[in-house]
Design brief:
- By secondary structure, the chain is of the alpha/beta class.
- Helices cover about 25% and strands about 30% of the residues.
- The chain folds into two domains: about 110 residues, Roll (CBS-domain); about 230 residues, Spore Coat Polysaccharide Biosynthesis Protein SpsA, Chain A.
- The chain contains eight helices and 19 strands.
- The strands form six sheets. It has a seven-stranded mixed beta sheet, sandwiched between helices. The chain has a three-stranded mixed beta sheet with strand order 1-2-3. The chain has a three-stranded mixed beta sheet with strand order 4-5-6, with no helix packed on it.
- A hairpin with a 5-residue loop joins strand 5 and strand 6.
- The two termini are about 40 Å apart.
Amino acid sequence: MKEFKEFDVKASCVDESLSVRECMRIIDRNKQGIALVVDKDGRLVGTVTDGDIRRFTLAGRSIDEPVSSVMWTNPLTAPVGTPESELKELMNRHLIRNIPLLDMDGRPQRIVNMMDFIGKEETGVSAVVMAGGEGRRLRPITDTIPKSLVKVGDRPVLEDIIISLARAGIVDIYISLNYMADLIEEYFNDGSRYGVRIRYLREDKKLGTVGPLTLLPEPLRSPLLVMNGDVVTRANLLRLIDFHREHRCVMTVAATQYKFDVPYGVINTTGHYLLGIEEKPRQKFLCNAGIYMVNAEVIPLIPAYTKFNMTDLIQEVVRRGLPITTFPIHEYWIDIGQMEDLEKAQNDIGGC
């Protein structure tokens, strides 16, 4: 039996009365993507994964509810001493990343993670970062540098993205270039100083936010992570990859929640009858976050050498009845495409 990495399983155990919000913090802190819900005797009664919480919020539920409202009460487990081959087979068959190992009394003794069996470099996902935009709304800054080299904190936004991809185990990265392409190539070179391999997709003309995928030099054999080059986020990209694989969709669109406070009383009507009035309600919307997972079968839907945006591709996939899912981002996210948002990001992250 393989000796797995030492991990304090108690740090992942939570009580049923804990809020979903607090459970999220524990999952983020333990880096395992899972929390174990135990009773007063320490026996496992349920599990909560990062994906469970994201689906929970997509359903309009509040993260201030108790964790018992989101936990999976019949989780997949294995007894301590289960052979490595069986654990790997269970994970692959059920498309899960973690299995709690229990003693004879049902108390968690260990969490086995898929990364115990494979190296970080074997995630099987490559990435394309769209960095060809001019950044006209950031002029005069972008008169001399491309938008993706504008600094947020102590490094350019594109460097922050590359580091995030590397941390997620994505080592094969393409950067799509157009405006001031030479400056970006000169800055990142082959990516070796980040522990990744960077190649470049040169646009002879503007191809939009997804058209550059037709420039990939070889057919995809695995899902592709596509990301806009002007996004600053602390979203866990490995969790996005897991979420995409778990839901078996051809695309996953990451979304951030936008809240808008209506400054007036909103009237609810049917015909000419007034049914009620809500004073200064808060509206919530899920908005495109500019981060996507794309399967190989979607690429042929993109016309070659034509300006084509991700919204066009999404609409085409929907029109064909192919399955798309949404991955809600709870973590920090901002698009620095406008001056006020760039300034906000610099204030948010500059001191970190």
